[in-house]
Amino acid sequence: MKIGIACDHGAVEYKTEIIAMLVEQGHEVIDCGCDGKESVDYPDYGYKCAKLVQSGEVEKGIVMCGTGIGIGISANKVKGIRCGLCFDTTMARLTREHNDANMLAVGQRTTGIEVVKDIVNTFLTTPFSNGERHIKRI
């Protein structure tokens, strides 16, 4: 799968670890930045990743900041993006099954890296349920 990934300065370490995991699993990853701990504006990076998803250049997007909140909000401003903020695998599964989320937001300051890895894997492997009640809602 081709996946876009982005973060601000508050989640650079997690981005690096998640990219390594995804590449090891055989995914192609497009890194939308940022690459350092110097303060940056998360909307710039959330938007860049969301535009890749919107255009179809990547199938899914993953965005990260300190909490996942700000960068997820930024991604959701792009038409056609459904970015779910997840703190556990149940949320990741349900945002895919019920909302057909095409982007995932997580926070480095709020969720441990091993949990984030599980969330990412759940998000990427869970299909949309395609149920009529869910389709009409999205």
Q: How many β-strand runs?
A: 5
CATH superfamily: Sugar-phosphate isomerase, RpiB/LacA/LacB
H/E element order = EHEHEHEHEHH
Strand content: 15-25%
Principal-axis shape equals globular
Radius of gyration: 14 Å
- Largest sheet descriptor: 5 strands, parallel
Number of domains: 1
Average pLDDT value? 95
Uncertain residue ranges: none
CATH third-level topology: Ribose 5-phosphate Isomerase B, Chain: A
Structural class: alpha/beta
* Proper CATH architecture: 3-Layer(aba) Sandwich
State the end-to-end CA separation.
23 Å
How is the largest sheet built, in terms of strand order? 2-1-3-5-4
DSSP summary: helix tally: 6
Structure description:
By secondary structure, the protein is α/β, with parallel strands linked by helices. It has a single domain, classed as Sugar-phosphate isomerase, RpiB/LacA/LacB (Ribose 5-phosphate Isomerase B, Chain: A). 46% of the residues lie in helices and 17% in strands. Strands 2-1-3-5-4 form a 5-stranded parallel β-sheet, with helices on both faces. The mean pLDDT is 95.
Could you give a short description of this structure?
This protein has 138 residues and is of the alpha/beta class.
Keywords:
138 residues, alpha/beta, Ribose 5-phosphate Isomerase B, Chain: A, 5-stranded parallel β-sheet, 17% strand, globular
